[in-house]
Amino acid sequence: MRIRIAHDTTYTYSEPVNAAMQLLRLTPRGHDGQRVITWGIETDCHARLIRREDWYGNIMHSLYAAGPLDHVGLKVVGEVETTDMDGIVRGGPERFPEIFYLRGSALTELDPAIREFAEAAIGHISSPLEKAHTLMGAIRDRLRFDADATTSTTSAGEAFAAGHGVCQDFTHIFVAAARHAGMPARYVSGYLHKVEEPHQSAGHAWAEIFVPDLGWVSFDATNGVCATEHYVRLATGLDYLDAAPVRGSYYGVSREDLHVSLTIEGAAQSQSQ
Fold first, then answer.
1. Domain at 2-267: CATH architecture
2. Would you say the pTM of this structure is higher than 0.90?
3. CA distance 56 to 75
4. 42 near 74, Cβ under 8 Å?
5. How far is CA 23 from the centre of its chain?
6. What are the 10-residue block averages of pLDDT along the chain, 273 residues in total?
């Protein structure tokens, strides 16, 4: 299917700042289940925007804008053609061996509660694919989705103890538990097309697990499904900090407010396409 995305992000400052710097992972790459038709990033201020790749192979733009600035606005508009691959991801850049994704990170650090939960849920299962599916279901049963429960710096252990969180938290817990079970796991940021909800307040996050004989397979613990043609993959990493669509800072004494407007619309491909 074809998915059209319009993603507006505005940072507003209570007092003008001297400069703003941001790292943008807002441009998808193509792979076997995803073809980028058109894509562009614009800013509403005079800024330098330099494109490069990070060490995971994600497309990243470095933005620098000199002040005084009372706001920085970003507009992303693009169209992607997707194909349902039964959750399997192939054809993208792979900069590291699979075992690299067994290592922990600040936001996916394993704590005793997650370790006990993982062993109880999947410790008796030998098949990696069955382990991943069972773990996904167990996390969805254990956690409650709550858009106001956590922040971008909440760790897997903190979200698990609270018992609720957003897609980022579901993914961090899934990744931490999977790595404990010996399954290479990574964090994915992107977009989810929802037929009944074209206007959204944030992007989406899910995980990819390396399964022998299949390769990388996408698991969305928030919704309890493997990724379908409704998912647009932006970036990957060990956790949110590696794959965040926008991360930045500013110079100045000010308070920063963030506003996001996101529209995701899709249409099934015709047989002639």
1. Roll (3.10)
2. yes
3. 24
4. yes
5. 15
6. 96 92 96 96 92 96 92 95 96 96 95 96 96 97 90 93 96 98 98 93 96 97 97 98 92 87 78 36
